[in-house]
User: Which sequence fits this backbone?
């Protein structure tokens, strides 16, 4: 009984800020402006600018997930093969823990102050090198800029989630491979590669879900237009609503929940497959 009492604040928090909003989104997605049941909101998800926003969100999330996974895995490997108690590992792990959570308005401001129209790097390149970063377009405030900014927190997140898998590679496996006459290629082909593939793909899916659900950074950086789904939802929740489509924002939210749930479900399956190897 005491254990349940201790868990009450946590359950109340989850119920208030996760379960209750999810239920509202679920029921609202199937209601029209008069509260009647309809599939019209979900049908709209596959048409016009709403569908385009989903496509752009998936493309942005997939691209930043791949970039973050590749460079993050290389960085993780660099610290995993080094001294486990060394200064480099401690600095990278601690820095990754901070930078993975460094998002929202502070991250957007950091990039504006660095590579914005009057940012430090922008002015230096323009005044001293003759390079104008915004000669072609205002790329920082569109999908290319979001790709750059999202990658900033995707790489350290990859370090955090992929490092335990690399640490789980036991030295005895490499020694056994060498004693049987195997080469490094043999080891990675038959031992290391198959073991690391599921956690790598799982981390890739986690990065995808992380980017797909990100809102605050994009909201602070993109002031006009709604190129991705979270900003589309913002538009519907702040009054930019077409008559008769008041619940379309909830349908968009339901679509995001479904996409993220699929990614996380596949991630769980991959983690179960590799769990027995890294225990």
Assistant:
């Amino acid at each position: 009984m005491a254990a349940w009492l201790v868990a009450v604040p946590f359950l109340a928090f989850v119920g208030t800020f996760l379960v209750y909003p999810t239920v509202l989104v679920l029921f609202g997605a199937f209601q029209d402006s008069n509260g009647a049941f309809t599939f019209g909101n979900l049908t709209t998800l596959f048409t016009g600018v709403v569908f385009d926003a989903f496509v752009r969100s998936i493309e942005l999330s997939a691209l930043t997930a791949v970039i973050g996974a590749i460079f993050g895995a290389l960085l993780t490997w660099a610290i995993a093969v080094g001294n486990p108690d060394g200064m480099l590992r401690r600095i990278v792990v601690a820095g990754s823990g901070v930078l993975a959570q460094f998002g929202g308005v502070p991250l957007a401001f950091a990039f504006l102050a660095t590579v914005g129209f009057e940012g430090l790097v922008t002015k230096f390149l323009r005044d001293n090198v003759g390079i104008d970063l915004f000669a072609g377009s205002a790329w920082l405030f569109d999908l290319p800029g979001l790709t750059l900014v999202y990658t900033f927190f995707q790489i350290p997140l990859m370090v955090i989630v992929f490092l335990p898998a690399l640490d789980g590679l036991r030295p005895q496996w490499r020694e056994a491979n060498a004693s049987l006459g195997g080469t490094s290629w043999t080891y990675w082909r038959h031992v290391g590669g198959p073991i690391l593939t599921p956690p790598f793909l799982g981390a890739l899916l986690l990065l995808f879900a992380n980017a797909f659900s990100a809102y605050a950074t994009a909201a602070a950086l993109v002031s006009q237009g709604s190129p991705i789904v979270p900003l589309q939802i913002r538009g519907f929740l702040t009054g930019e609503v077409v008559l008769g489509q008041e619940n379309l924002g909830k349908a968009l939210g339901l679509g995001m929940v479904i996409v993220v749930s699929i990614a996380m479900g596949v991630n769980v399956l991959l983690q179960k497959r590799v769990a027995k190897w890294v225990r």
User: Anything to note?
Assistant: The first helix runs from residue 2 to 28.
